[in-house]
Structure formats: structure tokens, C-alpha cells
Here is the input.
Amino acid sequence: MCGIVGRQQRDPLSVDTLERLTRTMNRCLRHRGPDSEGYWTDSYGRCALGFSRLAIQDLSPAANQPMKSESGRYALVYNGEVYNADELREWLGRPPSSFRTHGDTEVLLACFERFGMERTLPLVNGMFAIALWDSETGTLSLARDRVGKKPLYYTTDAGCVSFASELKAILSVDTSSRRLSAEALEAYFSLTYIPAPLAIFEGIHKVRLGHIVRIRDGAVVNEQPYWTLESLLENRERTNKPYTELLSEAETLLEDAVRRRLISDVPVGLLLSGGIDSSLVAYMLGRLGADVESFTIGVPDRELDEAAEAHAIAVKLGIRHTILPLSDSDALRLANTAIDSLDEPFGDSSAIPTYAVCSLARQRSTVLLGGDGGDEVFGGYTRHLWAVRPRAWISGLYGRYRAKSPWLSRQQVALEVYRRLMSSGKCSGSMPRERLQHFTGGHEEFPGATLLDYLRYFDFKLYLPGDILVKTDRMSMATSIELRSPFLDYRLVEFSWTLPDSALVSGSVRKRVTRDLFTKNIGSEYLQQKKHGFALPVVDWLFGPMREQVESAFDDLGRRDDLPWGREYLQQLQRQLPSRLRLDADRAWLVFIFWRWSQAWERAHGNDDVLSCPSVAQNVKMEQ
Here is the structure.
């Protein structure tokens, strides 16, 4: 795990200049890799790579990056972990003794040199963001894993491409004037996050999940997928196996996913919330004989606190467990640090307790496992339940849209439902379906797809990579923690898409497969009636200890006429806050986070150009 940076030039620069720029970028990412740093520069001044290392596998200097291939043709920096390096060694036909290290970087590089990136990446089980320089063709290739666990930004400007794990590294050497992206701002206030390929600034992009971006002569020459969910859905076959057989297969896959994620030369721990997913990971760790410690937080709000449930699971499974009591004052103190760790406005308030529990865990562990992805993979959200219930409003809405708009594909109708569902309560109302399609991919209909299929598909394309994985990556890496997600093993993901709806959601039961595995192996008496995850009392905060900051935010932003709200809207929202309505609190939180983010930008760059963008006001309209 680490931070990666680099540049590729059309017009060569001196080696000293390239390395100086790369060092400047890399300094912004030391939290991602505090153990060591490394640099490599092409002798012709065309490309430079930088690396901040969080040492996990093979702690020796021999495993440091950037790493050159045996022939000298390729240079690699990569952020992440490969969990099937042993199988890749066998694919190469080389014994372990032929490698200088026992880490995964050397194996990955050898595969790229022998088989190429397009053939290698579909075989990799892991999470990654990769930059590979080919000196023979003068090509830089950037790639991300299948579900977008690891981030990668890039920008092109005047014959130069810069890339980095985080936006702040690019901006540290970017001298061009940056303007807010109207499309990104619209997405933030509609969805609470900014999906790929957008970034908050115009001209900066995120590499799409499952894609390779090729760069030559300081420009992007092509972008192509090596794995797509669309291809999986178009070619899948629904299984007709008995449910008991499917349950056994899921259990086997999950156990192996957990086993692979124990690969480490540093201590491994567990984030345990007490819910189904993290508890199943805890059970598998025990079954595998892993000696790990679990961590959770406790909050004063009894309706949100899950520390007791997590403790009960830990006792049941015989796991060492630590609870971090998080008072409102502690959470507020940590909030600023957590928010500043985000390069872009990000509206999920659970980022703050995630940062807090990672900070606690870092005292004893460098690697953590968690239950993230279980809801997306096995149908754990209320919307998934409503999608299969004939009298539920979601399925009813889907039917009415199909009857009223027969010219729309099933996916477009489902996206219309998803748009309204996920945008309710946000500041600007719903992003138009036509623009949302830009992130979900076209008008395809998948053979035999149900409404549940489409809602899960949109979760995988939008919510999972845009919200959940942004939160887990930024908050864990801000504390120099590597967070691994067994439920996002690509084999489990692909297996889940072969299941019939009834194996995912049945009657009033969501996440049927994992719920049944939990009941079988842990006990139904430990099932929580209501799951919150790492939640915070945002409504109480906005009305209480944060009220002065919120009023300052509204006052500052309300004086501007080039942003997507007017003074009347903000004043109305302020007046409504004392009613403690969740809808108003969610809207106020989004406004407040944008203000805090813009303040951090001004502190870092000494100007307020970021708040001067007439195109935003023209393209983004707020609900009144």
C-alpha cells in the first residue's frame, strides 16, 4: 500500500527538474506511505515516477518502488495488494527462488513484461492503482482495479500528463488556473459524492474502474476496459443450483477471500461493527486460526451506538476486542482532520468515525479487514428489498415509468427510479437521467435483468466506488492503514451476479445468503434488528456544537452570486434547522462540507479562485 505520483512529458525536461517536481508531488502523500520513498526518472527526461511506501509485504529495501523490470524496459509504481501472487508465479513458470523478493510487485512486473497488461490484469486478484512506463514505446499506462478500491487521478496540460493517488499531489505542481467543474458540483449536491471520471476541478480526471489509460507524448491516446460489469451481465448464466449448494459455495469463496487477505508481514486487525458482514469476516478469521484484534467505536447516542453488539460478537468468537469511546467533542475535533483528508467535497458523515476507528487501530495494526461491499454484493439495502416486493413504491414506480415511457429501455427506466431514490433529500434535487447515464454507461438492456439487478448495477457503478470506497481509502490511508475488503474479491462479485433474486432478497429478508451464513455459524440471537454502520448524530451537531460554524458557512456562501444557491435558500435552510428534520440536516451538511473544503483550499493555495466560477451557477440549480 502506498501513494504513487508521476509525470510524462512530450518535451523532455532535465532529470533534475523532473525529479524535483516528482518529489514535490510525493511529499503530499507521505501519510499514504510513511516508511520510505523512492524515485525513478527516464534518462531522456520523458517520464518520472515517485512512490511513498507503507511496507506490508517483504519489508526489505529490495521490495521498494519504483521497480525496474529485468530487461530494463519497464518501470512500475503501484498502490495496492495482489492476493494471488503465488498463482501468478506459477503462470510465469518460475520458482519462488528465482525472484529477488517475496512481495507482489516483482511478480506483477514480471507478468507485465512477459504477457502485457491486458492479459495480466484480468487474472489479478487484488486492489490496485498502477502506473507502468514502457521505455521502448514511450508509453505510460495507468490502470485501476475492477471495483475502484484504489484511487488514481490524472491531468493533461500543454504536453504533460501528471498523475497521483490523490488530487492534492497533482495540484502541488500544477500552475494552471483551476476552475470548479459544474458537472462535478452538480453530482456532489445530487449524490453527495463525485463519481469517476469527474473530479472537482475542470481538466482533472479519475481513471475509471477496470480501465487502462494509455499516455504518449504528454497526451492520452486511448482508454479501454480490461474488465466490465456490463460484459459480465451480458454473458452471465443464472444458476439453477439448490440454495443450500449456493450457500456452501458462498461460504467457501468468502473463507478463501479472507485467507488471501491475511497475507502480510505486519500485524493484521479487523474493523468490527457488529453487523452481518464484518461479523462473518471475524468468524472466518477465527476459523482460519488467525490471531487478530478487532476494533470498534462507541458513541453517546444509544440509537446509533453499536459497541455492545460488536463486543458480544467478539466475545462469542473469542477475539481480542478494543472499543474506542468517541464523545461528541472527540468526534468534532477529529472532524476537521478527516474532512481535510478529502481532496474533494464528500458528504458521507460516516467518514469521521471511520477515521477515528482507523486512528485507534493504527496503534496496534497496519492492515485491517472490514465488511465493506457486503451490501452491494449480496443485496443488503432497503432499496433492494423494495425492488422485489410487488406492492412496494419502488417496484410500483418502475412499472408506471415503463407504461408511460415505452421508448425507454428497461435500464433507463430503472435509472430513473434510482435517480429519484438516491437524490431524495439532497440539495439540488435529482441529477437529470441523461447526465447520470454518463457514469452508468449507455442504454444497454441486460438479458433477463430484473429491477433488483439494475439497482445493484447502479450501486456498483456509482455508490460503491464513489462513496463507500472513497471513504474507506481516504480515511484509512490518512492514518497509514491498509484496509482490505474480502467481500469485494472479484470471484465473490462475479458469483453474486449468477444468483437469482430469491437468493439475495426473500420476503422481508435482505442479504439472504450472508444472513443465513451468519445464523448458521454465529447464531440468530446475535443478529441486529437495525444496522447503522459507523453513524454520527449529524442533526444534533448542526443544531448544537457546530451551529456557529454552520452559520459562518451560510453567511460566507450566501454573499456570493456565482454559486448554485441564493441567500434566500440558505436563510430558509438555517431557519428550518431547529426543527431537526433529517432532510434539512442532510442538505445543511452538504453545504457545510463544501464550505469547509473551500476554506482548506484557500489556506493551501492562498486565493479564492476556486469559488469564482460563473459556469457553476449557470449549470447547477438548487431546490427552493
